[in-house]
Amino acid sequence: MDLTFTEQQDAFRQEVRAWLEENRPVDDFEPYYTPTGLAQYKDWERSLIDAGYSAPGWPKEYGGLGLDLWGQLIYDEEYARLNLPERINKMGLLHGGPTVMAHGTEEQKAKWLPDLLDNTHIWCQGFSEPDAGSDLAALRTTGRIEGENLILNGQKTWTSFGVIATKMFALVRTDPAAAKHRGISFVVLDLDTPGVEVRPLRQLHGHAGFAEVFFTDAAVPLANVVGPLGEGWRIAQTSLQLERGTGRGVHTRLEHALNEVTHLARRDLDSASMERLGSLKAWTSAFAHASYALTDAMSRGEEKTADASVLKLRQSEIQTAIREEQLALLGGDAELISDVEPDAPLPTMLREYWHSRAGEIFAGTTQIQKNIIAEAGLGLPREPRP
């Protein structure tokens, strides 16, 4: 395994770095669920689109740069290194769009991908439900076939970017009589469809980036089903696997978070803190090298399902440990909320601390990742799936 970057890759890194440093936003952004914040994010997204950096990993025929996995890793590292704004359409650009490319019809690709790439439509993911989170196949939202439509009834929750999204890709049960992991279909729908209601979920830290979405006899064209009816569970794996393993500069973001907490520690650094921070430094370095190794294997076409789950599991553990160290260093200040502006967003560091545990849930819980590692990686027996 050769992890040395080529001259061409180094040149691409310098090109991306120079553009991002020159064009990076100079002002702090308001939350994207506010009118001012959304406008700021969309202006930034327009800059990325004009430069060809909206979805550089997409194939050229769909408007991307056609980067291979190493090129995408370089781009993600440089974006994360500067701690640039979160991509407000990442659920579509990184998950929904590639799933449509892999499983959709030519008509669906032509209809949806251009408007996704330029942010005419912002996509969200409709997977989780109140009683179907880690056990996603237990979902209860139904899609009853009537003529040329699916009639949706049910609820989705913890929908990231749901408060600003205009489209959703969702899993719905189209055959209630089928076995648990069958009879599920993957569908794309407009959120302004009659019978669809989006309600913001405002959390304790003031962030309203999540939403819950209700369907009451919402009619969606059957033509919006991606892949065959009843094959949604298989198709959804494309989206789920894109949330795990390499990508999005995760290792660089972990290093950035640790450096942030280490800088905080300099105010009151004792031997115990030094030991914990040193251990976290070693783990973040190991995680980065493991990310490179997985990228190398995947670039050669190797199937690494278990390895991706190992990285996802360790990512959540390291992320939580970094924020727990932050909590210890902040002491009583960790829970401070302004009584002058109770609705003001928390500083980024505090918000990230409160959000850190989410990494143990999204894209498959810790328990789910351990099951995948046991079965796919270690070959341990599994209970037969119905």
UniProtKB/TrEMBL annotation:
Q: Where is the Acyl-CoA dehydrogenase/oxidase N-terminal domain?
A: 6-118
The answer, when asked if Flavoprotein is one of the entry's keywords, is yes
| Cofactor needs | FAD
Acyl-CoA oxidase/dehydrogenase middle domain residues are: 124-217
Segments forming domain Acyl-CoA dehydrogenase/oxidase C-terminal:
230-376
User: Domain of life, per the record?
Assistant: Bacteria
This protein's UniProt keywords = FAD, Flavoprotein, Oxidoreductase
Family, per entry: Belongs to the acyl-CoA dehydrogenase family.
Name of protein: Acyl-CoA dehydrogenase family protein
Upper classification of the source organism reads: Bacteria, Bacillati, Actinomycetota, Actinomycetes, Micrococcales
